[in-house]
Input
Amino acid sequence: MRCPYCSHIESDVIDTRKLDDGNSIRRRRRCPQCGKRFTTYERIESVSITVVKKNGEREPYERDKLYRGIMTACYRRPVSAQRMDQLLNDIESELLANNEHEVSSAHVGDVTMRLLREVDEVAYIRFASVYLSFADITHLRRAVDELLARESPSKL
Output
């Protein structure tokens, strides 16, 4: 593994840990040339999914692209990186459960919104505002009102 600091071609593995019930591995590494430490992750490459966009274009599913959207929605919210990773794993599991190689971008967005709502309601509203392209404050208010209507009276 190439060192991200000095670009030396080799590194030593210091520690290895299984994550996500063995679905991924985290490795702590040390560069023998500069001595700096860094972390790498290994994940099983799942069956490839093609996302069909609203305009009919097809593009490969990109985990990082969805992760960036979730990170943006969760910015300055009490959602840990580990919880965001778990959310991403849950979304991917649901997308793969249908055994279909093509999914619509609308389906990806709907699954993400539903699962994100369970994690953090403010992050859900942020994600929904981009995904649903709220045209004005009325649409945003309607989404917030729907959330409030789902709240139990004890939380209000």
Notes: The mean pLDDT is 85. Strands lie at 12-19, 24-30, 37-43, 50-52, 58-60, 102-104. The chain has five helices and six strands. The helical segments are 63-73, 81-97, 105-119, 121-131, 137-150.
